């Protein structure tokens, strides 16, 4: 695939921000209705992170490489070999490659991945290398 079709760092960030807003806002509103408080403490715990991680892991296997944010900015996750994404690919990419590695390295792999997308010709981050994926437009 030509470099022209590789999703840039800014498109990937925009998709992530849109996804966060789209998922975060209804949860915040629901918690406000229940508690009457706009506290954001819940966003650091299991109540938010587990469903969000499941969304990022499962949705691309159902929606041909897309989550809502990626769909809006017209980019998608795809396998390098052209096969359809499987749940095992997304577990390797999102749970192991992003979440667990990011957690155990105190965010260093997240920073390294951002730099990789900025610098590498193929725009692939650590989680893409682990899962055999790329993000394209």
TrEMBL record:
Transmembrane domains' residue ranges: 9-34, 46-63, 100-119
RDD domain sequence ranges: 7-132
Membrane topology label: Multi-pass membrane protein
Pfam entry (one): RDD
Cell compartments where the protein resides: Cell membrane
Keyword terms, alphabetized: Cell membrane, Membrane, Transmembrane, Transmembrane helix
Superkingdom of origin organism: Bacteria
Signal peptide: none
Keyword Membrane: yes
Name of the protein this chain belongs to: RDD family protein
Organism of provenance: Cytobacillus spartinae
